[in-house]
Design brief:
There is one protein chain. The chain has 236 residues and is an alpha+beta fold. Helix content is 40%, strand content 22%. The strands form two sheets. The protein has a seven-stranded antiparallel β-sheet with strand order 2-1-3-4-5-6-7. Strands 8-9 form a two-stranded parallel ribbon. The longest helix has 57 residues. The relative contact order is 0.12.
């Protein structure tokens, strides 16, 4: 009888391991299904809330507007009014006042910050050739430090009339928007950073610099497209 004990013990141990493995796999499958169901169940609401937040932000970065229209940037480099994005091509948001006057364009951009990717919206006024507003759409920067890019009044003042002037041929920005350290701003195209949030504030200057270099010449040279939409769609 004593000789059978080790065999019986090994058999019981093997059965217990099998049961534990089955239980762990079952729990894993259940959790995966739960995550998928929660994602599918909340995706529509999350997308709707994001759209609403973006629409509100457009009004923040383009002072004086009362109407907006989404335009899609096609592969041919032309902007076309659309009802919704196609998920592939860049979109911008044209802003108009009560009389249907075209005032500017809100442009979405993103780039790497200190903690993660920062997603922003900025307003461009082609008549004054300046960036006239800035808003953080999504950020995971450090609370109390990196999130100063959303609250610091001196930093936000950078975007009231930030120069995005084009060269005489209107083909490129004459002086690219660049970040500089706090207290170091001497030109209208420089974004003065925040001491204590250096990486985050520099990231904003770089994001706008890269984005505006591409988008501003395209928008400026198609002002008539944005104006024409208002003439055909907004009553005066």
């Amino acid at each position: 009888m004593n000789a059978n004990h080790p065999v019986s013990s090994q058999s019981n141990s093997s059965e217990e391991s099998k049961k534990m493995l089955i239980a762990m796999v079952s729990i894993g499958i259940f959790c995966a299904l739960l995550i998928v169901l929660v994602y599918e169940g909340t995706k529509e609401r999350i997308d709707r809330l994001r759209t609403e937040a973006l629409e509100k932000a457009v009004f923040k970065v383009l002072p004086g507007i009362s109407n907006t229209r989404m335009f899609l940037l096609g592969a041919d480099g032309n902007f076309t009014p659309v009802e919704e994005p196609d998920g592939k091509s860049p979109v911008v948001y044209a802003g108009y006042d009560d009389a249907g006057k075209f005032l500017g364009v809100a442009i979405e951009a993103s780039g790497q910050g200190y903690a993660d990717v920062i997603r922003i919206l900025y307003g461009y006024d082609p008549h004054s050739q300046t960036i006239v507003g800035f808003y953080v759409l999504e950020s995971k920067e450090t609370p109390g430090l990196g999130d100063k890019i959303e609250k610091d009044e001196n930093f936000l003042a950078n975007f009231k009339a930030l120069s995005a002037k084009l060269d005489p041929e209107s083909t490129r920005i004459q002086n690219k928007v660049i970040p500089v350290k706090q207290g170091g701003k001497s030109n209208p195209w420089e974004v003065e950073g925040i001491t204590g949030a250096t990486i985050s504030s520099r990231a904003i200057g770089n994001i706008i610099g890269e984005s505006s270099s591409v988008m501003v010449p395209l928008i400026y040279n198609q002002i008539e497209r944005f104006k024409k939409y208002a003439q055909n769609n907004f009553s005066k």
